[in-house]
Specification:
This protein has 442 residues and is mainly alpha-helical. The chain contains 21 helices and no strands. The longest helix has 29 residues.
């Protein structure tokens, strides 16, 4: 009886993954929230019953759900239009960091036309995607210059392989630390991760894979050079992994940390030199990075509080100043965390450091939470799972063409999250399960 119910729920899970990935638009708020709530409930059911369902069955479900979405067109994100745009630039011999989309329209380049331009969500900015992303954009449009479907399939196939790699690496690290193997399903079956990474084509999937590969070679293989290579690749997907380097200081010790950091820096700079080609191209990239931190805002927490204070004092949005203050604050907190002596578990440090970064960010998109979920697989903290469930409410911003956030709902979501974090902190730290007593065999 229980086995039949398990298989019924597995079938329902696949059906709703298909419905969200292929048939639901982000403007359809009611359907989006309803389907996701069902998926999240099933995800919780699989996690609670993981000891009673064959491991291979749940693992197969995670892979099948991802494979299914290989053939969908992203329907909750329009970022992929910029991916195509950058790829077409490279295939026409133009460095994607050298020109603004506005300027490209004047050059009459194949595929780079007003039809594609009109879908870009940041046509006035230089591209913000580093080397690994640009290489995949180039390869995808090289093999399918006239087929958007074919190019997207190549990109998604890369992310699919990264996801399979991440799941394998999580299992290997769990085995190494003698942690329950079912912990992998916190990541592998999380519907937000499946939908955002494969369905909506977000490259955090590859950043997580490269970061986990780095930790695998640091922790298990004790190979700092290979680990540094993977960390450099992670940085060239998103810049966020730069924060991870100081957080590994306590675990590695000064000598090993210096060696790891040095090799990471050298490889990162080498890849940057190959990518940007000229100093001006690098400056263009930094300009877009600065604009991201000083102009964009979405589903933030602490920043929104400061923004309201800024409005009250000056009468207008002080995002540029507040963004810089919060960025500096993040750096200081990360450094303090890195050199404290109480917490030695690297996964807890990575989890807390990244969590604080998101709390102090001006922009927190749902897919950002995937990295936190990956890290929490190795800790006693499960608040990233709650965060991944609450993050879906941010899509209510797209319920109409005004793109207005429901700020009271954003505040409520963060209050629930903070409440759960405090509950876990009390449970894990106070009740004789302190972090200092739970260093996972390092």
């Amino acid at each position: 009886m229980h086995k039949s119910r398990h298989y019924l729920f597995i079938l329902i899970y696949v059906v709703f993954i298909y419905s969200l990935g292929f048939e639901t638009l982000r403007e359809q708020s009611s359907l989006l929230l309803t389907y996701f709530a069902i998926l999240f409930g099933l995800y919780f059911y699989f996690w609670r019953n993981a000891d009673h369902i064959e491991f291979k069955t749940l693992l197969s479900l995670a892979i099948v759900a991802r494979f299914l979405l290989l053939f969908s067109t992203p329907n909750l994100s329009d970022d992929y239009f910029r991916f195509l745009w950058d790829g077409y630039l490279w295939n026409n011999g133009i460095n994607a960091f050298s020109v603004l989309p506005n300027d490209v329209l004047l050059l009459s380049i194949p595929n780079l036309n007003s039809a594609l331009y009109n879908f870009l969500n940041s046509p006035n900015y230089y591209t913000i995607y580093p080397a690994v992303c640009q290489f995949i954009f180039f390869i995808s449009t090289f093999f399918f210059p006239e087929s958007v479907t074919g190019a997207l399939l190549v990109m998604k196939s890369f992310l699919f392989l990264c996801e399979i790699g991440s799941i394998w690496l999580i299992i290997q690290l769990l085995n190494h630390f003698q942690l329950p193997k079912k912990q992998v399903f916190l990541y592998a079956l999380n519907p937000l991760i499946i939908l955002e990474f494969i369905g909506n084509l977000h490259f955090e999937a590859s950043m997580i894979f490269f970061t986990l590969a780095c930790l695998y070679f640091l922790v298990i293989k004790k190979n700092a050079i290979i680990a540094a290579l993977f960390m450099a690749l992670a940085i060239h997907v998103k810049l966020i992994p730069l924060l991870f380097i100081p957080l590994l200081f306590n675990y590695l010790g000064f000598k090993n940390w210096f060696k790891f950091g040095l090799f990471t820096g050298i490889i990162t700079l080498l890849i940057s030199w190959l990518l940007f080609g000229t100093l001006q191209h690098f400056i263009n990239f930094l300009t877009s990075v600065n604009l991201y931190f000083g102009s964009f805002e979405f589903h933030a927490s602490i920043y929104y509080l400061f923004r309201e204070v800024g409005f009250w004092i000056t009468g207008y949005n002080q995002i540029e100043i507040i963004g810089k203050i919060l960025s500096i604050s993040t750096l200081i907190i990360i450094l303090v965390l890195s050199f404290q002596q109480k917490i030695k578990d690297p996964f807890v440090l990575l989890l807390l450091g990244l969590c604080l970064y998101f709390f102090l960010s001006t922009t927190v998109h749902p897919w950002y939470i995937g990295t936190l979920v990956a890290f929490c697989c190795f800790t006693s903290f499960k608040f990233p799972v709650i965060w991944s469930g609450l993050a879906i409410f941010s899509y209510l911003t797209y319920r109409n063409t005004q793109y207005e956030e429901i700020l009271w709902l954003t505040a409520l979501s963060y209050l629930i999250l903070i409440g759960f974090i405090l509950y876990e902190w009390k449970r894990v730290i106070i009740r004789n399960r302190g972090i200092e007593d739970r260093v996972i065999g390092l």
